[in-house]
Design goal:
- The protein is built from 5 helices and 6 strands; from the N terminus they run βββββααβααα.
- The protein is α+β, with helices and mostly antiparallel strands.
- The N and C termini lie far apart (71 Å).
- The chain is 47% helix and 19% strand.
- A hairpin with a 5-residue loop joins β1 and β2.
- The strands form 2 sheets. It has a 3-stranded antiparallel β-sheet, with no helix packed on it. A 3-stranded mixed β-sheet has the order 5-4-6.
- The longest helix has 22 residues.
- α1 packs across α4, α2 crosses α3 and α3 runs antiparallel to α4.
Length: 161
């Protein structure tokens, strides 16, 4: 790390701290040449590989933008969208990959979106799961109803003896 004051090509780490969410490390450094101190911030990079072959940094804003279109007219707040994007990024980072296919990002949005709003989920899924017909929508709705019924049945207490 070059010193920003004297451009010396080396520096020594004096202190390191992680951010609240653990995704960033702040390092306090000191230049051995001029003895001045400065801070750096380090994050692990996560890249998205587009269909065109271009690689670009992962962007929560792009996740929110794509999901916002599916949520148009639905009772979903900006805070909920931000939380969804954060959850998607955390899930992708926890997989340990440094580069992920753009289509995989879209697929990783499906589960949190399903928990947020079923109509928005169907809209989004119709694109990322390549729905071609009404039958595709019907089978997705049947599956969602079955999952919903299974969840509500597991929450309902059975008859007491």
């Amino acid at each position: 790390m070059h010193c920003p004051f004297c451009r010396h090509p080396d520096s020594r780490v004096v202190d390191s701290r992680t951010s609240d969410d653990g995704s960033t490390i702040r390092r306090r450094r000191q230049c051995p040449n001029c003895s001045r101190r400065f801070s750096t911030s380090e994050t692990a990079s996560l890249s998205v590989l587009k269909r065109s072959g271009v690689s670009e940094p992962f962007s929560r804003a792009k996740v929110i933008s794509g999901v916002r279109k599916a949520c148009q007219g639905r009772p979903v707040s900006d805070d909920q969208l931000a939380m969804l994007a954060q959850r998607v990024e955390e899930d992708i980072r926890s997989s340990g990959v440094a580069e992920i296919d753009a289509h995989q990002v879209g697929l990783s949005i499906l589960q949190p979106l399903q928990q947020l709003d079923l109509v928005a989920y169907l809209r989004f899924a119709s694109v990322y799961q390549d729905f071609d017909s009404l039958e595709d929508f019907e089978s997705a709705i049947v599956r969602l109803r079955a999952e919903s019924g299974a969840r509500s049945a597991s929450r309902t207490p059975g008859p007491s003896a």
